[in-house]
C-alpha cells in the first residue's frame, strides 16, 4: 500500500481524468485488499496443503504402492475440477470490485461538487445515479457471494465423490492384496487427511 501511495505522485493527470479519484481510490483500497487476502491466506493454505499431500502420499505409497499410486493419479483430477470451479467465480470478484470503483467514483464526484449541484438544482439527479451505483454494488456482491458459495459446495461434492472412489478401491484392495482391515482404516484416515486440502 505504501508503494501504491508513492506511485500516486507519478500517475499522469490523464489517468486521474480517465479513472477519476474514486477509481484510483477503489484501486488503492479494494484491489489491494483482494491481493492482500490472496497473499495472506491463500498462499499459506497452499503451502500447508502441498506439504500435507506430499507427506500423506509418502505414507500411502509405503502402505501399498498400487493403492498409493492410484490415489496419487486420481487426486490431481479431483483438484483440477475443484480449481476449475474456483476459476469460474474469479470474474465475479473482478466485477464486484469494478462496481465498487464506479460507486466510489460517483460518490467522490457528488461530494466534490455538492455546492455546484445544489446551486444548479441537479442534486437529485446525481443522488439517484449514486443510489443506482450503490444498488449495483449490492447486486454484484450478492451474485459473487451465492455463486462462490455454490462453487464451494460443488467442490466439496467432488471431494466426497473422490473420497468414495478411493474408499471403494481400498475395499477391493483388501480382497486382492495382503492389506489388512486395520491398514485400510488407516488408508481411510489418510485419504480424508489428503483430500482436505482440496
TrEMBL record:
Protein's cellular compartments: Cell membrane
Topology of this chain in the membrane: Multi-pass membrane protein
Database matches in CDD domains: ABC_6TM_exporters
Pfam families documented for this protein: ABC_membrane
GO CC list: plasma membrane
Keyword Protein biosynthesis tagged: no
Transmembrane intervals: 43-63, 69-86, 168-193
Entry keywords, A to Z: ATP-binding, Membrane, Nucleotide-binding, Transmembrane, Transmembrane helix
Molecular function terms, GO-annotated: ABC-type transporter activity; ATP binding; ATPase-coupled lipid transmembrane transporter activity
Source organism superkingdom: Bacteria
Location of the ABC transmembrane type-1 domain: 1-198
Main location: membrane
PANTHER family per UniProt: ATP-BINDING CASSETTE SUB-FAMILY B, ATP-BINDING_PERMEASE FUSION ABC TRANSPORTER-RELATED
Name assigned to this protein: ABC transporter ATP-binding protein
Amino acid at each position: 500500500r505504501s508503494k501504491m501511495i508513492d506511485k500516486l505522485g507519478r500517475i499522469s493527470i490523464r489517468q486521474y481524468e480517465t479513472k477519476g479519484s474514486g477509481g484510483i481510490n477503489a484501486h488503492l483500497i479494494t484491489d489491494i485488499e483482494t491481493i492482500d487476502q490472496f497473499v495472506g491466506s491463500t498462499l499459506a493454505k497452499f503451502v500447508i496443503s502441498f506439504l500435507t499431500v506430499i507427506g500423506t502420499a509418502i505414507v500411502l505409497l509405503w502402505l501399498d504402492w498400487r493403492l498409493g499410486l492410484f490415489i496419487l493419479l486420481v487426486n490431481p483430477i479431483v483438484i483440477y475440477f475443484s480449481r476449475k470451479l474456483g476459476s469460474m467465480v474469479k470474474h465475479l470478484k473482478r466485477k464486484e470490485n469494478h462496481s465498487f470503483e464506479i460507486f466510489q467514483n460517483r460518490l467522490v464526484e457528488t461530494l466534490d461538487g455538492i455546492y455546484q449541484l445544489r446551486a444548479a438544482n441537479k442534486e437529485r439527479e446525481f443522488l439517484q445515479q449514486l443510489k443506482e451505483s450503490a444498488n449495483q454494488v449490492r447486486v454484484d456482491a450478492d451474485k459473487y457471494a451465492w455463486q462462490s458459495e455454490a462453487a464451494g459446495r460443488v467442490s466439496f461434492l467432488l471431494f466426497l465423490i473422490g473420497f468414495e472412489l478411493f474408499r471403494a478401491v481400498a475395499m477391493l484392495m483388501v480382497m486382492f492384496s495382503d492389506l489388512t482391515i486395520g491398514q485400510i482404516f488407516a488408508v481411510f484416515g489418510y485419504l480424508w487427511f489428503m483430500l482436505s486440502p482440496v
